[in-house]
Design a protein that fits this description.
Structural class: alpha/beta
Helix content: 25-40%
CATH superfamily of the largest domain: Medium-chain alcohol dehydrogenases, catalytic domain
CATH class of the largest domain: Alpha Beta
Shape: globular
Number of strands: 15
Radius of gyration: 21 Å
Largest sheet: 7 strands, mixed
CATH topology of the largest domain: Quinone Oxidoreductase, Chain A, domain 1
Number of helices: 12
Length: about 375
Amino acid sequence: MTNMTRRGVLGSALATAAASAHAQDGKIRAYEHGDNKTGGGLTLRLVERPAPKAGPGQVVMRVRATGLNARDRSLMRGVRIYGGAGDRPTLVPFDDNAGDVLSVGSGVTRVKPGDRVICTHFPLWIDGPWDDITMTKMDFGVNVDGFCAEQALAPADGLVKIPDSLSYEEACTLPNAGLTAWNAVMVESKPVAGETVLTLGTGGVSVFCMQWAKLTGARVGISSSSDQKLARMKDLGADFTINYKTTPNWHEAAMAATGGKGLDVVYNTVGIGEMERAIRASASNGRIMVIGANPTNPAGTTTEDQGLRDFPRSMIMRRLKVQGVLVGSRKMLEDLVATAAERKVKPVIDRVFPFEQVREAIAYLESGGKAGKIVIKVS
C-alpha cells in the first residue's frame, strides 16, 4: 500500500467516524435545494437535519454512496417534473443510492439492520406494467427526499440486496442508469446474436446499454464527440464507434457499419434532436428506444431534422417500433443485480467525489467530460 493510499484510507476512516459521531447526536448532514422559481441558479446547500426515524414499512438507510444523473442537473436548475422540486424549498436531491439498513419500522421483514441494499428509483413499481399516475407518487429527489444525505428513509418494499461482488460506489449506479438501460435492452428491445445495435453518447445509461447488449451476443456500437472516450469504449467491448462531431450525419456511418442494412436497435439517450437520424439509421423491423428527453441535439441547437420530416414514411415502410423507456421495476432490478453478479459486470465509473465536493461533482457533470457514471462517496 502506497503512502497516498494509506492517507486516503485513513482520511476516509476519520470522515466515517466523524459522521457516525455526528449521527449519534441525533443530527445528520444533508444537501438541500429548491425555491428555484425562475430556474438557472443552483440553490444547493449543506445543512444539518434531525436523523430520520423509520415509520411503518420504512427503513433508515445509512447512505454510503449516491451519484448524479442528467435529470438531477435539470431539477437543481429549476426544471419541474409533475410538480417538481421547486415546490419544496428543502428537498434532498439525487435518487442514486447504496448503503446499509440502520433500522426498520414496524411490519418490515424483507430486510434487517446490517443488510447492504439499494432502493429502486420508483419504489412503488414492484412488478408488472408501468402506471405513471400511481407510481410517480414517490420519486426520490422530485416529490420525496433523495439520498444526498448521511441517512435517508426508504420504503422496505423498494429495496434490493446487493452482492458482495459490488462496492457501494458501484452498486449506487444501478437503480437509475443501470436499471434504465436494463429495461431498454433486456426487457423492451431484446437484441439477439446477429443483430447490430447502437447506443448514443457515453453517459451512464448509454454505457450500461453497451454492457447489457454485449451480454446478448449482439454487435454493439456507441457514439461520442470524443475520440478519447470512444477509444475507452472500444477497450470496454464496443464493436464499432462513431464520432458524431466529426460525422454529424452519423446515420450514414451507421448504415456503412451495417453494410447498408441498418441498425436493429438504436438506444436514443439524447432526445428529439436525434430522432430523425435514429430513424434513418434503422433497419426494417428496427426498434428505437427513446430514453433521453432533451429538446435539442447534443450541440444545443435547433436543426431541420427536429421536424422529423421523414418520420411517417420511414416508420411505416421500415415497420419501426419506437418505445419510450423509463427506469424499471423492483423485479427488473433484482434480475439486473443477479446477472451482474453472475456475469461479473462492473459499472463504469468515471470519477468518485467526496461528500463535501457535491458542487464540484455537479460542475463536472455539466462540463460534459464524463464517460460513465459520476459517484459521490457519502461515508
